[in-house]
Amino acid sequence: MNERRRPNLPPSSAPGRRRRGGRARRRPGGRSRLLWPGLAAGAVLVLAGGLALKGVTEPAGRPADAAGAPSATETGGTEEARKDAPEKAEDGKRGPEKKKEKGKDKEARAGEKPDPDSIPSSGPGTFATADGGGDRVGGSGRTLTYVVQVEDGLGIPAREVATEVERVLADERGWTADGKVGFRRVSGGASDFRVRLATAGTVDDICGQYGLDTGGEVNCNVGQDVMVNLKRWLLATQYYADDVTSYRALIINHEVGHFLGHGHEGCPGAGRPAPVMMQQIKGLHGCRTNVWPYDADGRPITGPAVG
Number of structural domains, the chain? Predict the structure, then answer.
């Protein structure tokens, strides 16, 4: 986003094309209690054979956010496991309940945005590639292969980022809705493009090799690289402050859109969804936020070309 429009080029001529992203600055499951009736003073109650206690727990976690692209979904285990009597944990909480609370803590952390000052501004410039690969998604035309990489030292598993990128590119509202282009993630060998999550300094370095000034703040597409600024990935922008997951889809769709040869577009009219190729970070100009190139009915969401 926020890059100059360049001539459309086929993927095979990637080194000649460059784009950059828009500019912005911003940066209960409690345990059960057993209430025992009072005992008469001095009385001793003995139950032959002991007293069997059976706990009741609810499934941990919650369904994935349908509007966004969650990286993980937690479940509460099998029905048989939930019927079993829970074991007592050392801290006094029953096993399943303790697991449930841990799951909620993890979920809460995933939804929290980090302190901007805690995000590293530079890194080694070396990358880890997500292993494995994905199935082909999309139309019957050319299949574009891609790898997902994360700069070393960020503490973010490349496989987690790959899961988000795969889901975005496979969405029925994505670029594959034209029925022609297809995508497939690979983990090695030659690929058509690379999605690379990196610190601002590394993004500046790589984009700068093509003459682009990303200013430590924005994303870009240069050559075969879709460069994703770590700050934008974690903090989003003012229009997506409460929906970072959706903003990540906008990053991928916008920069991959440039790789596919799409230029910038403007708002088509007040109240209408903003095109994914619009530099939404600069303002919505009456449009509504939108992160997909097509709507749910397969119609392209476009606007007037912007030079």
Answer: 1
